[in-house]
Amino acid sequence: MDFIERIFGISPDQGDGSFEWLLFAIPIAGLLYLWQRRRLRAGRSDLAVRRRPR
Question: What is the b/e burial string over 27-53, where b = at least 16 CB atoms within 10 angstroms of the residue's CB?
Fold first, then answer.
């Protein structure tokens, strides 16, 4: 992965590809965070609904 070097002609990571991996990993981590947050919030609302009829 050296698209930064090819497009801009600079090498922020001295050619080892770590910057490109970081650009890939950050959005994936953000999506996982949002998915987990939504899953936890949905779980809380389910518990609240289950407790009301008692």
Answer: eeeeeeeeeeeeeeeeeeeeeeeeeee
Q: How far apart are CA 46 and CA 10, in angstroms?
A: 51
The span from the CA of 17 to the CA of 26, in Å, is: 15
Cβ distance 6 to 15 under 8 Å?
Answer: no
pLDDT class of 4 with cuts at 50, 70, 90:
confident
Q: What is the pLDDT of residues 5-54, one digit of tens each?
A: 889 998 989 889 899 999 999 999 999 999 999 998 888 765 555 555 55
